Amino acid sequence: MKELRIDSFGPPNEVVRLVEVDEPTPGPGQLLIALEAAPINPSDLLMVRGVYGVRPDLPARLGAEGVGRVVGVGEGVDPSRVGERVIVLPSLRQYTWVERTVADERDVITVDGDADPLQLSMIAVNPITAHLILTGYAELKADSWVAQNSANSAVGRYLVDLARLAGLRTINIVRREEAAEALRADGVPNVLVSGPDLVKDVRAILGGEQLGLFVDALGGSQAGELTGLLRPGSSIVAYSALTGEPFSMPFMQLIFRDISLRGFWLNQWMNAAPRTEVDSAFSYLAGLVADGSLSAPVEATFGLDEYEEAIRRAGRFRRAGKILFTF
């Protein structure tokens, strides 16, 4: 059986390697899953570099999320579960860049066996991030305004769709005209390219209204520049810092208008949320994927033995969609 792993932290193109291993055996309360698809996320590549929020013990198996079929069960697990399609949750207790993996029952969610496996494989990191940010940090009524940067990212695209389903209006900021054109071609509304006139451009779209939430993936000063357009008491939620620059915000806005800067990390929610909340959130998203309401572009798929090219493509700044391993 093939799997990808690292023996040391470093640049993904240097430290990731393909190895042959024995097929795992499920223990009590566990499922053996034959993977169908697993995405390469930025967080996976940060993990490989050793700069993610947690550092696994070495040697480390890789891949946080994916989808597959149950092909075996351990003691105490209902044998009728064999044949189920499940998504593997990003608890970091198992791995998905492998032909077969073992997971505890608590670390999987059963999903529609007929839905698109590529789309299902991506549910557990990016769309759940967008969903939780939209629902957990502000009381957004129908027609409320939400702005975001990095709108062409996977999280950004999911946020647009989820906001639309919730009756919210979005302003979607990108850094390149090429990315803006791609979003507009897909029907994404209110797309702006960041620049010196960004505040004026956002204000023009708002037409006198205020933002109820700003979702930041860049870091740096952009979120701070837009705080004057947020309604008092609202939040900026940061889930990434792609520029690598410290967040910069005017303290007068924070103090006198009660604007808050919040951080979001999926792993914290996974560890703290009640199981009923986890099940409800992922089941909701899986249902949207199954009925075609929620999807993200896929640029290319690769087998595990093509991992070098897959990782190279996933690390590119300009992509037209996600890179996935398929099995």
CATH architecture of the largest domain: Alpha-Beta Complex
Radius of gyration (CA) equals 20 Å
The rounded distance between the terminal residues' Cα atoms is 11 Å
Overall pLDDT score: 94
Show unreliable segments: none
Q: Indicate the structural class.
A: alpha/beta
CATH class group of the largest domain: Alpha Beta
Number of strands: 16
What's the number of helices?
A: 12
Characterise this structure.
- With 327 residues, the chain is of the alpha/beta class.
- It contains twelve helices and 16 strands.
- The chain has helices spanning 12-15, 42-49, 117-121, 126-136, 154-165, 177-185, 198-206, 222-225, 251-256, 266-272, 275-290, 307-314; strands spanning 2-6, 16-20, 30-39, 60-61, 66-73, 85-88, 100-104, 108-110, 145-148, 169-174, 191-193, 211-216, 230-238, 260-263, 298-302, 322-326.
- The strands form three sheets. Strands 3, 5, 6, 7, 8, 15 and 16 form a seven-stranded mixed sheet that branches.
Spell out the blueprint of helices and strands:
Elements: E1 2-6, H1 12-15, E2 16-20, E3 30-39, H2 42-49, E4 60-61, E5 66-73, E6 85-88, E7 100-104, E8 108-110, H3 117-121, H4 126-136, E9 145-148, H5 154-165, E10 169-174, H6 177-185, E11 191-193, H7 198-206, E12 211-216, H8 222-225, E13 230-238, H9 251-256, E14 260-263, H10 266-272, H11 275-290, E15 298-302, H12 307-314, E16 322-326
